[in-house]
Design brief:
CATH class of the largest domain in chain A: Alpha Beta
Oligomer: homodimer
Structural class of chain A: alpha+beta
Number of domains of chain A: 2
Strand content of chain A: 25-35%
Largest sheet of chain A: 7 strands, antiparallel
Radius of gyration of chain A: 23 Å
CATH topology of the largest domain in chain A: Chorismate lyase
Largest interface: A-B, 47 and 47 residues
DNA sequence: CCGTATTTGTTCGTATGTATT
DNA sequence: CAATACATACGAACAAATACG
C-alpha cells in the first residue's frame, strides 16, 4: 500500500537531511514554507515533522523554528576494571571510570532506609531493610546520571554506620566497607536495561516527557568472596548520550 | 505552567493503567467514549493517546481498538563467558549463549566483500577489504536479531577460504580460524549503543517506523594474543525485548 | 522597554479512508 | 454488507515563545 502523505513528506525531509541539504544545527523551512512546497495542510506538515522528531532528526522550538539535530559525541562508560591487570582487586564505582577531562560533580547523597523489596538483587528476606544512597551526577555542569546504591541494613548493624551518614564516603564506600568490616568485593554482575524515562528522570535530564529518548539503566550487583551480595548500584542515564564498553579476556588498550 | 489538556488526559490514562483500572492486554475505551468522558475533541483525545503510545503504554489497532501493552519478559543476553571459569579459553559467539529452552534459528549467511571502512574497529588500511557475513536470527519463530560479522580479507588470503562460503561454518567460525590458521581469540571488547532503528531494521523486527522502540547495537571486537583484531561482530536487536548481562571478577552463578 | 511580526503549540470542527468485526 | 474503530487530511482559530525594530 502507498504510504500516507505525511510519511512521504517525512521521508523526503529525512533524505534531504541525510544528504546534508539541511545541515546539522541548521534550520528547517518553516511550517508555512513546507505547506507551500509540498502543497499540504499545516496539520499534515506537522505530522511529517513529528515523525522526524521521533526519529531524532530534528527538534522544533516554539517561536524560533525547527532545527536539525546536532551530532552528539556519546560519553563512553567502561564497565570493566581499567588497566591491563584485569584480575586486579580495585573495585570501582561506575563514577570513578569517568574520563578525567570532564568536570564530574555529584549532589550530596540522599540517604533513606527502605524495604528490601526494591533491591531484589540483594536477595534479602521479606522483612529486611536496606540503606539507599541516592545521588545526582553532573558532567561539565549538565545532568548526566542518577545513581542509587542499596546496602543491606545488616552492614550498618555490624558497624558500617557511615553508610547512614548524609555526607560522601571518602575515598569510597567500597574501601570503607573493606576497612570497617573487612568486606572485599570480588566481582560484580551488571544488568543493562533500556526503557522509557519516568517523569522524574525526564525532568532531571531535561528530556521531552514523551519517551522519545530512551534511558539506559545499569544495575550492578557486587559480591564478596562468599557469593553474598554486598551492594546494588543502579545507574540511569539518557541512552542517546552514552555508550557502554566492556572487555572480556585479554584485549589491547584502547587507542581511540 | 499548566499542562496542555492532552497531557492531562494522558496523565490520567497513565495513572489508570498503572492502577490496573485498564488491565494489561485489555482494551481502552474507544476514542468516542474518551471524547465524551473528557469532553474533548477527537484530535485532543488522539494527542493524549499518542503520548501513551510513545510511552509504550498502549498500542492502537485500526478497526479493533486501543490495547494496553502486555508486559514483556525480556530475553537475557550474557556477554561474558559462561560457567565459573571466567578465565577459560572457550570463546563464543553471542548466538551460543542463548537459553537452550528457545528455538533459535538463523538464515543462511549473506556473504559480501566490502571496503574496510565499514568496520573501523578492525583497524585496516585505506584500500583494505573485509568479508562480511550477515545473518537474520529468529527465536521461537520470531525475528530476534540481525548479526553481521566482519573479517579482514587477509584471513581468506592466508587460507581461511571457508569464510567466503555461503554456508554455515560448523561448529563455528572461531574454532575454524583456530584450526585453519592457528588464530586463537584471547578476548574481546563489546561496545553497546542504543539508537533509533533504520528502515531495514524496523521492517525485519516488525517495529513501528517511527523510532518508538529503540535498537540495541552490540559491537564485539575480538582480538588475538598479539592484540590484532580478528573479527568484528555487530548484533542489533530491539531494546525492549532484550537485556544484557555481564560479569566482572568472581561472581556466583545465576540462580534466577 | 514595548509592540508587532513570526513561528511553533494546542484545540476545535469536519470529512473521508481503511481495517476489523 | 453494515457497523465500528482507528488513520489520514483539510481548515480554522487562538495561545505561547521568540525575534526584531
Amino acid at each position: 500500500m502507498r504510504d500516507a502523505r505525511y510519511q512521504q513528506i517525512a521521508d523526503d525531509l529525512r533524505s534531504r537531511i541525510e544528504r546534508g541539504e539541511y545541515p546539522r544545527g541548521g534550520k528547517l523551512p518553516t511550517e508555512k514554507e513546507l505547506m507551500e512546497y509540498y502543497d499540504a495542510s499545516r496539520n499534515t506538515i506537522r505530522d511529517a515533522v513529528r515523525l522526524c522528531v521521533n526519529l531524532g532528526l530534528v527538534q522544533p522550538q516554539a517561536g524560533r523554528g525547527t532545527f536539525v539535530t546536532e551530532e552528539i559525541n556519546p560519553l563512553v562508560i567502561t564497565l570493566t576494571r581499567g588497566g591491563p591487570s584485569v584480575g586486579g582487586e580495585t573495585a570501582q564505582y561506575l563514577s570513578e571510570v569517568l574520563p578525567t577531562q570532564h568536570d564530574a560533580r555529584s549532589s550530596v547523597p540522599r540517604v533513606e532506609v527502605r524495604e528490601a523489596g526494591i533491591a531484589p538483587e540483594l536477595r534479602l528476606g521479606a522483612g529486611a531493610t536496606v540503606v539507599s544512597r541516592h545521588q545526582e551526577r553532573y558532567l561539565d555542569g549538565r545532568p548526566w546520571s542518577l545513581q542509587t546504591t542499596f546496602y543491606p541494613m545488616d552492614l550498618v548493624t555490624r558497624g558500617a554506620t557511615r553508610l547512614l551518614g548524609p555526607d560522601n564516603i571518602e575515598p569510597g564506600a567500597v574501601s570503607y566497607l573493606s576497612e570497617a568490616l573487612g568486606i572485599e568485593e570480588t566481582g560484580w554482575r551488571d544488568r543493562v536495561i533500556v526503557r522509557v524515562p519516568d517523569p522524574a528522570e525526564a525532568t532531571f535530564f531535561q528530556l521531552a516527557d514523551d519517551g522519545r529518548v530512551a534511558i539506559m539503566e545499569i544495575r550492578r550487583t557486587a559480591f564478596q568472596a562468599s557469593g553474598a551480595p554486598v551492594r546494588l548500584t543502579v545507574t540511569t542515564c539518557p541512552a542517546d548520550r552514552n555508550e557502554l564498553l566492556f572487555s572480556t579476556g585479554q584485549v589491547p588498550a584502547e587507542s581511540w
